[in-house]
Each structure stands twice: as structure tokens, then as C-alpha cells.
């Protein structure tokens, strides 16, 4: 159901109830009502929710998966979160961390399995 997809997208993106409320100019309690299905989210607010969570409107509507197998939505969420970071030092640290994690994973995959 759509209210469950709204909540899942928000939680996966790490957006708090208060932050989503600010985005939509409503109270955190109203966000809970949308996520519980008590109240319906107006169609004109759906793109705001999607943007805040880094997902597509189609994903929130259930027309495509919120997280695709190829990681497309994961990348979109990462880029969306990165854009919200205003401090260049923090941005650089995040990039350096991602590069280091990728290199560590690559090294891990290359190691031969130890004999049991």
C-alpha cells in the first residue's frame, strides 16, 4: 500500500519525521498520519516526498520497486543525500570513505579462501 511505501522510502533515506514535515510544511504528526494511512497525501505533495527521499514518484506509487536490483535507487538516494551536505570537507570525507570501502571490498574479493 502507498502509505507503507511512503514510510519505507523515508526511513531508508534517513529522513526524520520532523525533516519531512518541514519539507511538506506540515507537522511530524501529519507525516505519521500519511504513513499510517489515516490521511491521504495530496498528489501535489508526492513529488516533494519523492525528492526528499531520493526516489521516484513511480516508486512511491508502486509502479516500480523502491530499490532496484541494479542499485539505481540506491545511487539516487546517495546523490540526493550528498547534495544536502553543504560542507565541502564533509563531502570530500564521504567520497574518500566510499573510495576506501570500494578498494577494501575489491581486495577482499581477490583474496583466496583460506583452506579449512
UniProtKB/TrEMBL annotation:
Pfam families: HTH_31
HTH cro/C1-type domain residues: 6-60
InterPro entries with a match to the protein in the record: Cro/C1-type_HTH, Lambda_DNA-bd_dom_sf
Gene3D superfamilies named in the record: lambda repressor-like DNA-binding domains
CDD domains: HTH_XRE
UniProt xrefs under SMART domains: HTH_XRE
Protein name: Helix-turn-helix transcriptional regulator
Organism: Belnapia mucosa
